[in-house]
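Hi R.,

As promised on Friday, here is the backbone we talked about, encoded as structure tokens. Could you run it through your design pipeline when you get a chance and send me back a sequence?
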């Protein structure tokens, strides 16, 4: 049984906290990239590895590892959504969904951090481009109310409740 980690007074608060968590966590590697770019531009830091062949190999290796990691996380998430959809009660479904989405967001942060480390060591622009792809993938996977309904196979009142963030049933 899950610990009762979420005490939300409304669906608006649920999505507000979920979005804030995602945005704050994604800002961590973004700020890191900005700092490293600043250090390189002001020539306060130089790449630790300046061999072009090694840099290209490291970039391809990191990109492959991150692709494998994000693919595994995606498959596990899809499998988790199927399990969560069979649960009874919208509250239980959303609580478990929150935990799955948090782990998914954490995987984007880890991927971005690995790319940041690679960029810091090599200054290879491929790490920056790969980071952009990770950010884009995170945006495409963002948990909107419609996506939550689709992933959890919500129907009827549950779907209406999530789509409107609880406003459809206010008096």
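Update: got your reply. Pasting your designed sequence below so it's all in one thread:
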């Amino acid at each position: 049984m899950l610990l009762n980690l979420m005490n939300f007074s409304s669906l608006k608060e649920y999505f507000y906290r979920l979005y804030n968590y995602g945005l704050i966590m994604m800002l961590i590697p973004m700020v890191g990239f900005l700092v490293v770019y600043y250090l390189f531009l002001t020539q306060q830091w130089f790449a630790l590895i300046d061999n072009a062949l090694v840099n290209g190999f490291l970039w391809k290796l990191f990109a492959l590892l991150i692709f494998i990691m994000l693919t595994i996380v995606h498959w596990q998430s899809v499998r988790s959504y199927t399990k969560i959809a069979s649960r009874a009660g919208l509250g239980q479904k959303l609580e478990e969904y929150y935990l799955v989405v948090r782990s998914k967001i954490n995987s984007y942060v880890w991927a971005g951090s690995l790319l940041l480390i690679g960029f810091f060591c090599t200054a290879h622009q491929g790490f920056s481009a790969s980071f952009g792809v990770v950010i884009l993938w995170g945006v495409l996977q963002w948990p909107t109310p419609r996506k939550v309904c689709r992933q959890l196979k919500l129907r009827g009142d549950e779907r209406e409740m999530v789509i409107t963030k609880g406003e459809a049933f206010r008096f």
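One thing I noticed while checking it: DSSP finds six helices and no strands in the chain.

Thanks again,
M.
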